[in-house]
Design goal:
727 residues, 13% strand, 18 strands, alpha/beta, globular, six-stranded mixed beta sheet, Rossmann fold
């Protein structure tokens, strides 16, 4: 698209690309095209750390980069500031042991490449690299446990997270013996990608509850491939089957059994989940963050089930269909494939846990102590991707196919070995493969090393870089102020709401009004009529349903369309003054970033106005809601001033459910003091969030705040609110 290309190109003067060894042919073409005609292009990379062939990446891009330009400047980054000199020497020997040329003398690694310790690197004399060669898996893990306990007890490491075990794969058949050993010796570990989600007790308990509610037992269970998960769940449930939970499960199972032709229950598959969470032991599990996050994943799975199979509420007609699809198809597929547990993308190395991760995961990370396993396993390279892509690449293949396994294996383990800062340990329960001999041969074995020298060391780890968090004015600040508990579950833990009709309604109105504004900005205002608006509306509706939101009933859907058309008809003058729509705004604070979106920016006579849409009925000026919106718009005004160099003249809320414009358009007074006050207010709210103050101290209005909240059952059982309902 030439138009889009020119728009992007005009905004870019310099391009910098990191990890260039992991780019593919198409990405290279895009980079070259965007950098034309000046080619102010800087790439950084290391072909020795190329790991992403399975994504179509090729080291050709970095090796041949200088050939594309007449005056390409090459800067060699040879000093290693990370690792002990002995470790650098060891992994350099390993990678240099491979012949990186083919019979035609083509190089697949920069020749004469070297890595040297930086002058500032500490190099005390102690055993910085050794091995563990167990007689079997038990002997191997016993020695690893002994090593970790030795390092922690003697203060050589300060925190368990200073130790990382790197493996080719962390599925349970690769990592299970390490995990079991750490459990046995009470050493905390973190291995979210072991695909062991369904091994957790709380998840087995949930599976058991669903099996009881939908009657998936007896003959059904006997024929079920993964019945052990449900059987174990039912066994564990016996420990917790207090009368309240027992009565609930029996009652819900009876309701489904007693359904007759044409009857239905006003309950979704997800509704049962949120009701179950109200009862012990699940309500206790919710207070444990790891278990709560596992529950959140379960809520997302149930939502995916409902969307994929187009199931809304439980009926006589679909009750058996739900049962068999849920267990024989959905859960069966997930259990057999395995699922990862929660992992914080902003903090992949949480404190207090030995890290067990794949070598791919460790890319870009570093640890005082690195233990590398999988040395006895056969390494399989992803050759097929090269074969599949060859016909699409005009330049053909690069590396010889018969050398790919050797090249990729060497790069893979070079990455693993080079993650170590102070101590590198190679571990195996049997003889390692011969190709590791350049780094393995001659190594001392734990525990037969100079332990006193190691004991005297005090390894220091760098604090992890955790980026500033983003807090949205609408979806974070406002939610927390409405209910801290809702913030914890929906925003922090990301539980998937069971029913989201109000979310669909508001988003549908907003998106369709935005379509009108964009047509106006594109100079197509005359093309807009009710037929065109209805077309936008239906397209948006279909797109939103595809995300998993539940369909609107006929009346609310008609009401949503009416709100949009009424707005269009009554605001022709406003449409003439549009400056920008859906303006992304942000303010960077000392320890967080506030973001928001201005629905509409209006302008006339060099003056700016902000307009924000709300789909609910107009609130009174003295309503607390208005004060909340005023603070939000005040902050928007401050950001707009920073961007455009002038303060907006007016702030408006437009209540789209009002039929008359004079009722819909509400002006909010503001001044510099209010802007300052709003900024301090948001600082205070974010401070509470960061300090994890999620207790509900002021009881919310049950009819307004709690009526449609999935956690109303939980909060009611906890005594936070009094909710009356049939559940």
């Amino acid at each position: 698209n030439k138009e889009i290309y020119l728009k992007i190109r005009q905004k870019i003067k310099y391009i910098m690309i990191d990890e260039y060894q992991d780019t593919n042919y198409i990405q290279e073409r895009i980079a070259f095209r965007l950098s034309q005609p000046d080619y102010n292009l800087c790439v950084v990379g290391d072909e020795d750390q190329a790991l992403y062939r399975f994504r179509g990446a090729t080291v050709r891009n970095i090796l041949e980069f200088p050939k594309h330009f007449d005056d390409c400047k090459i800067i060699k980054l040879e000093k290693n500031y990370r690792s002990h000199p002995k470790i650098i020497s060891a992994y350099s020997n390993f990678i240099n042991s491979v012949n990186w040329r083919d019979e035609n003398k083509n190089y697949y690694r920069y020749p004469d490449k070297k890595v040297i310790p930086a002058e500032t690197t500490e190099s005390q004399e102690y055993p910085a690299i050794f091995c563990i060669w167990g007689a079997d898996k038990k002997d191997e893990v016993d020695r690893i446990v002994n090593l970790v306990e030795f390092l922690k007890k003697n203060g050589t490491i300060k925190d368990y997270s200073d130790v990382a075990i790197l493996l080719k794969s962390v599925r349970l058949n690769h990592s299970g013996h390490y995990i079991n050993a750490f459990k046995k010796h009470n050493i905390p570990y973190f291995c979210p990608r072991a695909r062991a989600y369904f091994e957790n007790e709380e998840i087995k308990l949930l599976l058991a509850c669903y099996a009881i509610i939908f009657g998936f037992y007896a003959k059904d269970l006997n024929r079920y491939e993964e019945k052990k998960y449900i059987e174990e769940g039912i066994h564990h449930l016996g420990k917790y089957l207090n009368s309240a939970l027992k009565d609930y499960l029996r009652r819900k199972a009876d309701q489904i059994l007693s359904l007759r032709e044409g009857e239905s229950l006003n309950l979704t598959v997800s509704d049962y989940f949120y009701q179950i969470l109200a009862y012990k032991p699940f309500s206790d599990f919710l207070k444990d963050e790891n278990k709560a996050r596992n529950f959140s994943i379960f809520s997302q799975l149930l939502n995916a089930f409902q969307v994929y199979y187009h199931i809304s509420i439980v009926t006589f007609k679909n009750k058996d269909v739900i049962k068999y699809l849920l267990f024989n198809s959905f859960f069966n597929f997930l259990i057999q494939g395995g699922m990862d547990e929660y992992e914080d993308p902003d903090n992949p190395v949480p404190k207090g846990f030995v890290q067990i991760m794949t070598i791919h995961q460790s890319k870009g990370l570093e640890f005082p102590v690195v233990i590398v396993g999988s040395l006895h396993k056969i390494f399989q390279a992803q050759k097929q991707i090269d074969r599949d892509l060859t016909e699409f690449y005009p330049r053909g293949r690069f590396e010889p196919e018969n050398r790919i396994t050797e090249f990729d294996r060497t790069r893979h383990f070079y990455v693993a070995f080079s993650r170590a800062q102070k101590l590198l340990v190679l571990t195996t329960p049997e003889k390692p493969k011969e190709y590791f001999s350049p780094i393995w041969e001659g190594l001392e074995q734990w525990p037969y090393v100079k332990r006193e020298l190691l004991k005297a060391q005090k390894f220091k780890s760098k604090p992890p870089f955790i980026p500033k968090k983003f807090y949205s004015l609408s979806s974070h600040i406002n939610v927390y102020e409405t209910c801290p508990m809702q913030y914890l579950f929906y925003r922090e833990y990301k539980f998937q709401p069971s029913r989201a009709g109000q979310i669909l309604f508001g988003t549908l109105v907003h998106q369709t009004i935005e379509d009108i504004h964009r047509m106006v900005l594109d100079g197509k205002k005359r093309e807009i009529d009710e037929i065109e608006i209805e077309k936008f509306f239906e397209e948006n509706y279909k797109s939103l349903l595809a995300t998993g939101l539940r369909p609107l009933a006929k009346t609310p859907k008609e009401s949503a369309l009416k709100q949009v058309i009424t707005y269009f008809k009554q605001n022709q003058d406003l449409l003439e003054r549009i400056v920008e729509t859906e303006v992304d705004v942000s303010v960077e604070k000392e320890d967080y970033i506030i973001v928001g979106k201005v629905d509409l920016l209006l302008g006339k006579d060099e003056k700016l106005e902000i307009l924000d849409f709300k789909t609910q009925p107009r609130a009174d000026y003295d309503d607390l809601l208005i004060e909340k919106y005023r603070k939000q718009l005040c902050l928007y005004a401050y950001i707009i001033k920073e961007r455009y160099g002038k303060m907006p003249e007016r702030l408006y809320i437009y209540w789209t459910s009002e039929e008359r414009r004079k009722d819909a358009l509400m002006e909010l007074n503001y001044n510099e003091d209010l802007i300052q006050e709003a900024g301090l207010h948001f600082d205070n709210v974010v401070k509470k969030i960061k300090e994890r103050k999620f207790d509900v101290r002021i009881k919310p209005d049950v009819n307004k705040v709690c009526k449609d909240c999935d956690f109303r059952f939980y909060c009611s059982m906890q005594g936070i609110i009094k909710f009356k309902g049939d559940w």
